Amino acid sequence: MKKIIEGVVIFIFERVPVLNFLNGNKRLIGNVLMIIGAGLEGLRSAYPGMALLPDVVAYYSIVVGAITRVVGDMHAQAKDNKFGSL
What we know:
Blueprint: H1 2-15, H2 17-20, H3 26-46, H4 55-84
Helix pairs in contact: 1-4, 3-4
């Protein structure tokens, strides 16, 4: 099962031209999105009377950042296993 998931992740991020530009940047993008989400949530909780942001924007940013970070880690691990076995 692990080989199938690794194969799918490698195929998606190395063979699909639209997602190929994300190679090497998924972890960075995920970390930046999580930091932005945490900052937005901090602003929202610091100024509750001001309708700066809807409640869900910060949470979506944190969730999308975490998912992007996990996918980046999975892809890096799959590449290490693929190239480490040569």
